[in-house]
Amino acid sequence: MSELTLLLIRLAFLAVLWFFVIAAVGVIRTDLFGTRTAAAPARKAAKPAKIAAKPKKGEPRQMVVTGGPLQGTTIDLTETPITIGRANDATLVLSDDYASSRHARLFPQDGQWIVEDLGSTNGTYLDRSKVTRPMPVPLGVPIRIGKTVIELRK
Amino acid sequence: MTAVDGAQVTLPAKRRGAQLAMLAFAVAIVMLAYANVGLAIDDQIPAGMLTYGLGLGGLMLAAYLVLAKFAPWADPLILPLVTLVNGIGLVMIYRLEAGGMPRASASTQLFWTGAGIVMFTVTLIVLRDHRALQRMTYTAGFLGLAFLIAPLLPFIGEEINGAAIWIDLGFTTLQPAEFVKIALVIFFAGYLVAKRDVLALAGRRLLFIDLPRARDLGPVLITWGVSLGVLILQKDLGTSLLIFGAFIAMLYIATQRTSWVLIGILLFIGGAVLAGLLFGHVRDRFEVFLDPGNQELFEKVGGSEQLMQGLFALGSGGILGTGLGQGHPDEIPLAFSDFIFTAAGEELGLTGLMALLMIYALLVERGLRTAIAARDPFSKLLAGGLSFILAWQVFIIVGGVTNLIPLTGLVTPFMSQGGSALLANWILIALLVRMSDAARKPPPQAIQDEGMTQVFQR
Question: For the segment A82-135, what is each residue's pLDDT rounded down to a tens digit?
Fold first, then answer.
C-alpha cells in the first residue's frame, strides 16, 4: 500500500470522525432552537383543529419551571391537562413540603390555559393573587406552588 | 406508536430515524477503521473485518430494536455515541493484537460487548419504571458495600498486579468495583432525595459560605471513610476517587450548596496527603507524577515507564496521528487496558483524540440533559449522578495518562479491554436510556370519548 493512499485514508478517517460529531450535534440542535419536527405536524393538524378553534399565534407551547428544585424542567403543552403535586402519578412531581399531593391542575379551554387549585393546603398563586377559582394563565406570568415557580411560554 | 386518532396532538419527535442513521454511521466508521488497520499492517482488507463489523452491527441492531420497543421515547443519541466509542475500542484492541501485544484479544472484547448488550436489553426489559429503584435505596447501598468488600474476602478474592480488586468466580474473574459505582449512585440518589432538605437548609452562614451543621456531616464523613478504606486496603486509588467524587457531586446537585463541595475538596486533600505520608503505594504514584522523566523512576519496576511511553506515543502522534496501524503503540506496556487512550492518541493524533473526547462529552451532555428534563427528583439525581461518574471516570483516566493528575488505575469507559467494566457501563447506559425515555415521554393522553371506564396507562 503506497504512502499516499494511507495518508489519504488517514485524513479521510479523521474527517469522517469529526463529521460524526457534527452530525450528532445536528441531531440535538432541536434542544437549542426548538423542535422543527413538532412544527410540521402542527401545520398538518391545522385543518381539523380549526373546527375546535385551536392553534392561534399567541398560544403557549411549553410549561417551564423557573424556580425551585426542579428549575429548568420543561413540559410541552398538548391537549392534555397537567397535574402538579407530590403524588407519583402527577405530570410534574414536586418534592416540596409546602405542596399537596394533588396540588393544582392546568388545562386548556378555548385556546387558553386555565389554572385550578385542587384544594391544596398552602394554596396556588398566580402572580401575586391566590387562585381561588379556575383562572386563565397569560404568557409569562409566574404560578407559585410552594417553592416552585412555573410559567407558560411560547 | 401512540398516535392519537386524527393526530390532534402535536407530540414531540421521537427521532428514531435519526437514531438508526447515526447508529449505521457509527458502525460504518468502525468498519472503515478495521479496513484501515488491515491495509496498513498487511496491505489487505482484514479477513476478520466482515465478522467483526457485522457482529457489531448485528448486536447494535438488536439493541436498537429492543430500545425501539421498550423505550421508544429514549434519547436518540445515547446508543450511537456509545456504539462508536465501543467500536473504536474494539478496533484499537484488534490492532494491538495484530501488532503482537500479549493478552490483547479482540474476540474476547467482542464477546464481552455482546454480553454488555445483553445486560443492556435485559435491564431495559426488566426495569420498566426506574422509580422502582428508589424503593431499593438501602438494598442498593448494602449491595454496593458488599461488592466493595468482596475482593478482600478469602477464597473468592484475588490480587492481580498489586491491586486487590478482583473476585474469582471459577470460570472468570470479575472486578466488582465496576458494579459498586452504579449501586452506590442509586443509593446516594435515594438517600439524598429523602435527606436533601435538612442538608440544604439547616446550618448557619459564615462570611459568604453557608456552613452545614456539624451533625449533618455524618454521611460525608462515612463516604470519606469508605473511600479511604478502599484506598488503603485494596490499593485502588481510582475507585476511591470515583466514589467520593460522585457523592460530593450528587450532594451538590441535591442541595445546590457550594459549601459541600469545599468541604469535600478539603476532606479529599486531607485524606490524600495523609495517605501519601503513610502508605508507600500512594507515595510512589506521587513521585512518578511529579518527576516522570527521572531515569531511576523510569527503570524501576512499576515506575514511570508506562506513563512515559504513553506520553512519547502522544508526542509521536502529533496533530494528525501516524494513522491506524502505522504507529508503535506496542511500546506502551498494557496498552489495551488503562493506556488505550494514548494508543489511540498515537494513531489518530490530537484531532482524533479531540473527536473522541467530544463524543464522551456529548454522551455526558445527553445524560445531564435527561437529568434536567426528568420530572421527579429521584430521576434527576440518578441521571445527574450516573452522567457525572461517566465524565469523572474519563477525566480521571485521561488526566492520569496525560500526567495532568497522578495516575490511578481506572478503565476508559467502553474502550479498555475488560469484561466487568463493559457490563457495568452498558447497564449504566441502559439506566440513562430508561430515564430519558421517561423524561421525554409526553404525559399520558386523556381519552376524549369517555366510555364507562377510563383506562390509564403508564
Answer: 888 888 778 888 888 888 888 888 888 887 888 888 888 888 888 888 888 888
- Is residue B322 scored above 50 in pLDDT? yes
How far is Cα B174 from Cα B424, in angstroms, rounded to an integer? 11
Per-residue model confidence as pLDDT tens digits over A57-68: 567 888 888 888
Instruction: Measure in Å the smallest separation between the Cα of B111 and chain A Cα atoms.
Output: 25
Separation CA B368–CA B356 (nearest Å): 19
Cα–Cα nearest to B322, from B300, B306, B342, B345:
B345
Q: Which residues of B touch A1 (CB under 8 A)?
A: 39-40, 43
What are the tens digits of pLDDT across the range B345-366? Answer: 999 999 999 999 999 999 999 9
Interface contacts A/B by beta carbons within 8 Å:
145
**Residues of the domain holding B278:** 3-457
Taking an 8 Å cut-off on Cβ atoms, the answer to whether B22 and A41 are in contact is no
Q: How many domains does chain B contain in total?
A: 1
- The complex's ipTM? 0.84
A38 → closest Cβ in B13, B352, B362: B13
Query: To 10 degrees, the CA torsion angle through B340, B21, B427, B394?
Result: 30
A16 touches chain B (CB under 8 A): yes
Identify the residue whose cell numbers are 510512589: B284
Label residues A72-106 b or e (16+ Cβ within 10 Å = b): ebebbbbbbbbbbbbeeebbbbbbbebbbebbbbb
Is B374–A44 a contact, with Cβ atoms under 8 angstroms apart? no
**Given an 8 Å threshold on Cβ–Cβ distance, is B11 in contact with A78?**
yes
Q: Identify which has the larger pLDDT, B75 or B221.
A: B75
Query: Distance of CA B171 to CAs B61, B174, B196, B373, Å?
Result: 29, 10, 43, 43
pTM for the complete prediction? 0.79
Give the Å distances, CA to CA, from B455 to A89, B11, B131, B372. 14, 20, 21, 30
